[in-house]
Amino acid sequence: MTDLEQRCINAGLKMTGPRKTILKVLTESMDHPSVEAVYERAKAIDSSISIATVYRTLNMLDELDLVTRHEFNESFSRYETNMEHHHHLIDLETGQVIEFQNSELENLKERIAKEMGFELVDHRLELYGRRLKNKIAK
């Protein structure tokens, strides 16, 4: 049983075959798949899975904070498991989503919140950019 499956059980979810398949797709995804991508990958494993089941399952997992839904300034949502804290850098030209962690950034966010009289309890950081073109060496 995966950590995510155990978290689902702890949240009171019954672990049906389709849910296990959707969780498998999410935990094995190295990208941040859309509903349609999750559906296609799940359907390749279990042809009986419907897109409605994928939508319902992802919405339920999002409500339980077991997955995170991202918009990334696109016309569709992307999903990832909510297992570790990290941030995202989105390439505006390719749509590639790069995950990163940075201890200096973590310390800065805590310091800013404290200076403003707050305890930081949650946040998201999404950076959008374009790859720098190689500069010609002189």
Characterization of this structure:
There is one protein chain. The protein has 138 residues and is of the alpha+beta class. It has 2 domains: 3-81, Arc Repressor Mutant, subunit A; 87-129, Ferric-uptake regulator, C-terminal dimerisarion domain (Dna Ligase, domain 1), CATH 3.30.1490. It is 41% helix and 15% strand. It has 5 helices and 5 strands. Strand 1 (67-70) and strand 2 form a beta hairpin.
**CATH-assigned homologous superfamily of the largest domain:** Winged helix-like DNA-binding domain superfamily/Winged helix DNA-binding domain
Count of separate DSSP helical elements: 5
What CATH architecture of the largest domain would you give? Answer: Orthogonal Bundle
- Taking Cα atoms only, what radius of gyration do you get, to the nearest Å? 18 Å
Identify the overall geometry: globular
What is the β-strand count? 5
Q: H/E order of the elements?
A: HHHHEEEEHE
What distance separates the N and C termini?
Answer: 56 Å
**Low-pLDDT ranges:** none
What is the topology, as strand order, of the major beta sheet? 4-3-5
Instruction: Report the top-level CATH class of the largest domain.
Output: Mainly Alpha
Main beta-sheet annotation? 3 strands, mixed
- The mean pLDDT is 89
Number of domains: 2
Proportion of residues in β-strands: 15-25%
- Give helix % range: 40-55%
